[in-house]
């Protein structure tokens, strides 16, 4: 490998002057140092974590050529456009190039004018290309999406297996293998195949802190999606559906609702898919409704939301798909619509797999995803622990569970006994779906075929819906009362189940309700929204003129900085996120003119560098986005009734009470006299509840529920707790 010249720029200097960033993200500096020292590296870094910088900066410092192997043409194009915008000598070789452009790139390689060359494995393996590369110094071989090498990975590509001989062809080149997701087994397979067993392994945290995670029970998915989308006007997002038909149906529905949306699936044909993707990348359309294939080849940084209209097949798939949001580091929201019906649909397709081991692994993946969807704890815990990373925080503050009051666990011993008894009486060989059919008194063919309509447990569970029973059954598995047979999902009783049968042990859990609506806080609020829109229009005009996506000019985060600090000089403008030397020279004057004119018109001045955020300016900026519970709390204090708020937000009384409790916990006072009428209990019973709060406290509701012998519903306890606390606060 070529030695680094003494006059070569330092990595931090390149980071600021070329890319316009002030600080490295975690592990970037260490990985760059490893590459510049000529040492191989395996990099596991989540989507949006900054993998590209890890090989791009060494490429710009080293004297020779860096080859980047990438699986998708669209991804190469995106990366090359962004590099060319910052003044880097980058190009790609693939079948999409016109003959003249292809020949021009070949000439640049021969004349050693390039620093980075992007290629698919198939292109790299061509004899004439290998012969050409033999004639130039290759300092670095970078394998992007390296999980494609491994047969144990979720996206195995046989052509990636053929890269190993190329590694041997350039023995002096440092080898960097990068991927967003890889289990330890996949990591070992990558290193062994590339012959880099001694490579340093750099594994970044899988925690994407700027992604808000939310799960809703699916009941009217089209309407739920519309309500969610209303929170993101003029912003980019992706909606994932299970089938092509669902993509087309939903896309048509959204367009009729006034949304800018296009479909993306394999049935459209190559040209249509390419056109739709290009329109999305260039902000000509806001929403792409797609099957899971979409997004693999783009690096669009300003995707503000991802919706899973249907359940993905695994946590790995879910993580990769939500990873397409918020790559600029600004908050992005991820909504998963979850239903038991979706799990049955996926199970059906899993059952079609001929290989028993594949079926078993797929079912395990699905079960882990269902556990994630149904958890009542912080959602990041099961998600991040899935990838082998410790995550012990009780609350992340960026998921629906952490921002809503947890549903109180109640005594579910009786329904648990019903379910366990039915498992026993059906012979401990059927899955949850069949047990639920028996409990609910179904007359379907399978129930009658096995004469299960004659069992004593037949029809004894009609008080709960299929969804509620399904949720309860998974709790019994998690609590160790049932075991699931790996291959076919049959349920068997454990020794602990006998304790429940005998009445020596109780079971506590939850009866599934619709999750609370999410907190409403789309993006950092403290910036001038009107100026941001002007800057966004300027960015779009420049991008269209240059025939590149808008985020290649500047990311949303860069525009937010400009709309927060109002830079008035070139020196101050260069302090904004993502403004390097080339972008300052190309675009600084145009953006500064807009900012200066706006500031003159509205009597605003530059915010000093020592300030981390711009001051609130109620005269010209849009109101700060508040969390939903704050909006509800203020409206209630202002005189709105619970009925008014239920109608306005389309939510349940229990959800509103939970919002008001959150509002109270932030130190805000509520009018106690207006809370009491919300209770439907007789005065004497209300007083009894308040006395028990006085005796037992208000932190946990279950002791109060038990002290009242379960005679008062939890919704009433929530209301009266809120009244009690606010009445006490007044005294």
Briefly characterize the structure.
This protein is an alpha/beta fold.
Protein model, in words:
- The chain is an alpha/beta fold and 731 residues long.
- The protein folds into five domains: 11-203, 3-Layer(aba) Sandwich (Rossmann fold); 211-403, Rossmann fold (3-Layer(aba) Sandwich), CATH 3.40.50.300; 410-509, Arc Repressor Mutant, subunit A; 529-602, DNA polymerase, domain 1 (Orthogonal Bundle); 628-730, Arc Repressor Mutant, subunit A (Orthogonal Bundle), CATH 1.10.10.
- Helices cover 47% and strands 10% of the residues.
- It has 34 helices and 17 strands.
- The strands form four sheets. Strands 3-4-2-5-6-1-7 form a seven-stranded parallel beta sheet, sandwiched between helices.
- Helix 13 links the parallel strand 12 and strand 13.
- Helix 32 (683-696) packs across helix 34.
- Mean pLDDT is 84; it is low at 1-6, 514-525 and 610-626.
Q: Into which percentage range does the β-strand content fall?
A: 5-15%
Known CATH architecture of the largest domain: 3-Layer(aba) Sandwich
Provide the number of structural domains: 5
- The number of helical segments is 34
The chain-level mean pLDDT equals 84
The end-to-end distance, rounded to whole angstroms, is 77 Å
Biggest sheet strand line-up: 3-4-2-5-6-1-7
Structural class: alpha/beta
Q: Largest sheet, described in full?
A: 7 strands, parallel
Low-confidence stretches: 1-6, 514-525, 610-626
Principal-axes shape call: globular
Helix coverage percent of residues?
40-55%
The CATH C-level name of the largest domain is Alpha Beta
Count of β-strands: 17
Gyration radius from CA atoms, angstroms: 29 Å
CATH homologous superfamily of the largest domain, by name? P-loop containing nucleotide triphosphate hydrolases
Q: In CATH terms, what is the fold-level topology of the largest domain?
A: Rossmann fold
């Amino acid at each position: 490998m070529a030695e680094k010249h003494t006059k070569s720029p330092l990595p931090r200097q390149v980071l600021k002057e070329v890319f316009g960033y002030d600080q490295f993200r975690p592990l970037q500096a260490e990985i760059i140092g490893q590459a510049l020292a000529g040492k191989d590296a395996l990099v596991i870094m989540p989507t949006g974590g900054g993998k590209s910088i890890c090989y791009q900066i060494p490429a710009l410092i080293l004297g020779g050529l860096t080859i980047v192997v990438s699986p998708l043409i669209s991804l190469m194009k995106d990366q090359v456009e962004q590099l060319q915008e910052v003044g880097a000598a980058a190009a790609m070789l693939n079948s999409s190039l016109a003959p003249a452009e292809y020949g021009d790139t070949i000439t640049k390689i021969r004349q050693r004018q390039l620093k980075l060359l992007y290629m698919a494995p198939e292109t790299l393996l061509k004899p004439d290309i290998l012969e050409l590369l033999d004639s130039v110094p290759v300092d670095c071989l970078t394998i992007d999406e390296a999980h494609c090498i491994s047969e144990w990975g979720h996206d195995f590509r046989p052509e990636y297996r053929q890269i190993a001989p190329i590694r041997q062809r350039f023995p002096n080149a440092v080898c960097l293998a990068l991927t967003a997701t890889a289990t330890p087994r996949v990591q070992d397979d990558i290193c062994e195949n590339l012959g880099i067993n001694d490579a340093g392994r750099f594994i970044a945290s899988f925690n994407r802190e700027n992604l808000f995670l939310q799960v809703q029970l699916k009941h009217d998915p089209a309407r739920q999606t519309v309500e969610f989308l209303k929170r993101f006007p003029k912003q980019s997002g992706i909606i994932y559906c299970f089938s092509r038909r669902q993509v087309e149906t939903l896309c048509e529905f959204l367009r009729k609702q006034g949304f800018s949306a296009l479909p993306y699936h394999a049935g459209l044909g190559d040209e249509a898919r390419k056109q739709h993707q290009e329109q999305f990348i260039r902000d000509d359309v806001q929403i792409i409704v797609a099957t899971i294939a979409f997004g693999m080849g783009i690096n669009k940084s300003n995707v503000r939301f991802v919706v899973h209209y249907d359940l993905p097949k695994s946590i790995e798939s879910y993580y990769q798909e939500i990873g397409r949001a918020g790559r600029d580091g600004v908050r992005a929201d991820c909504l998963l619509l979850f239903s038991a019906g979706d799990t049955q649909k996926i199970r059906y397709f899993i059952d079609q797999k001929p290989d028993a081991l594949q079926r078993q692994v797929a079912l395990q993946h699905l079960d882990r995803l269902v556990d994630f969807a149904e958890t009542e704890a912080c959602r990041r815990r099961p998600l991040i622990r899935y990838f082998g990373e410790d995550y012990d925080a009780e609350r992340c503050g960026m998921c629906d569970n952490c921002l809503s009051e947890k549903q109180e666990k109640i005594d579910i011993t009786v329904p648990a006994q019903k379910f366990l008894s039915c498992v026993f009486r059906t012979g401990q060989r059927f899955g949850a779906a069949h047990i639920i059919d028996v409990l609910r008194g179904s007359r379907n063919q399978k129930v009658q075929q096995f004469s299960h309509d004659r069992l004593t447990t037949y029809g004894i569970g009609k008080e709960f819906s299929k969804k509620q029973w399904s949720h309860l059954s998974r709790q019994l598995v998690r609590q160790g009362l049932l075991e699931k047979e790996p291959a076919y999902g049959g349920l068997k009783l454990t020794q602990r189940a006998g304790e429940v049968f005998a009445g020596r042990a109780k079971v506590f859990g939850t009866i599934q309700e619709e999750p609370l609506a999410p907190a409403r806080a789309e993006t950092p609020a403290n910036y001038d929204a009107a100026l941001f829109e002007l800057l966004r229009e300027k960015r779009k005009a420049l991008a269209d003129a240059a025939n590149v996506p808008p985020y290649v000019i500047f990311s949303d985060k860069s525009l937010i900085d400009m709309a927060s600090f109002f830079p008035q000089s070139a020196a101050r403008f260069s302090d904004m996120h993502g403004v390097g030397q080339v972008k300052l020279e190309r675009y600084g004057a145009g953006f500064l003119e807009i900012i200066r004119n706006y500031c003159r018109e509205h009597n605003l001045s530059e915010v000093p560098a020592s300030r981390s955020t711009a001051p609130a300016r109620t005269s010209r900026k849009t109101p700060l986005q508040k969390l939903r519970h704050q909006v509800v709390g203020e409206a209630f204090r202002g005189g709105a009734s619970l009925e008014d708020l239920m109608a306005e937000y389309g939510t349940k009384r229990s959800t509103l009470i939970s919002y008001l409790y959150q509002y109270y916990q932030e130190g805000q006072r509520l009018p106690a006299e207006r809370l009491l009428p919300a209770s439907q209990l007789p005065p004497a019973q209300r007083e009894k509840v308040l006395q028990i709060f006085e005796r037992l406290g208000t932190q946990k509701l279950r002791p109060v529920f038990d002290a009242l012998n379960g005679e008062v519903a939890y919704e009433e306890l929530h209301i009266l707790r809120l009244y009690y606390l606010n009445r006490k606060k007044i005294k």
